[in-house]
Amino acid sequence: MPHILVEYDRALLEVLDRRRFALELHALAARTVDGITVESCKTRFRCPEEVVIAHGDPQQALIHVELAILPGRTPQTRSALGAAVLQLVRRHTASASGVTVHASVDVRELTAAYAKHVAADGR
């Protein structure tokens, strides 16, 4: 926890340094929300083959970050995390030229059905 998924448009391939973004995002989440540690953060990136925005103008790009965190955080805490992540996204996509970047963040709580297992050496 948290589980983070970053979905982004191919137009951002050359702009988005995924590793640097993830490391900064992990530190940001740990600073913003009590109980989150850098060590507990897991980020996956997904770049779909095609993203279509509005009327299909190729000068549009999408980046969406989903954070799933353990329940119990206040709406204000989740909102503060979302706003901080959006600012991080904006910094990391600011150099995208020739495209309009549509950036969004969704912070949600994991359900009671969430389960996990961490195994050293595959055990």
UniProtKB/TrEMBL annotation:
The organism's place on the tree of life at top rank: Bacteria
Isomerase keyword on record: yes
SUPFAM superfamilies assigned: Tautomerase/MIF (SSF55331)
Keywords from the named record: Isomerase
InterPro entries with a match to the protein in the record: 5-COMe_2-OHmuconate_Isoase, Tautomerase/MIF_sf
Coiled coil spans: none
Pfam family, one: CHMI
Gene3D superfamilies membership: Macrophage Migration Inhibitory Factor
A GO molecular-function descriptor: 5-carboxymethyl-2-hydroxymuconate delta-isomerase activity
Name assigned to this protein: Isomerase
